[in-house]
Prior knowledge:
By secondary structure, the protein is mostly helical.
Amino acid sequence: SVIKETPVKLDYSVLQMTELQSKDVSRIRKKNKGTALTQLIINQLAKQFFLAEQKGFSVQDSLIEWEVRGWKSFKAEWMKVSKDDQPVIGKTQEIFNQLSEIKYVRR
């Protein structure tokens, strides 16, 4: 007889993210062709997101960088900090926010 594996419910709460951000983790992992998520991988990602926060990156910064760069997984050490110890993506986000406030006139 064939033994069926019972799907294991993964605990995303260790990520300490919003529900949408947790769904982004699954979506980004799948999109970037990483292996299927397991609890061990989720736990490791939680650690890496925490370490990135210690370097000054928000969860959203980390998710954006992970997706944009196409990484199969995420490591805090891959996140760059500028010479003045500021998270690089944070500066990019500031510039983006400033640009989004500019009103363009169609001619």
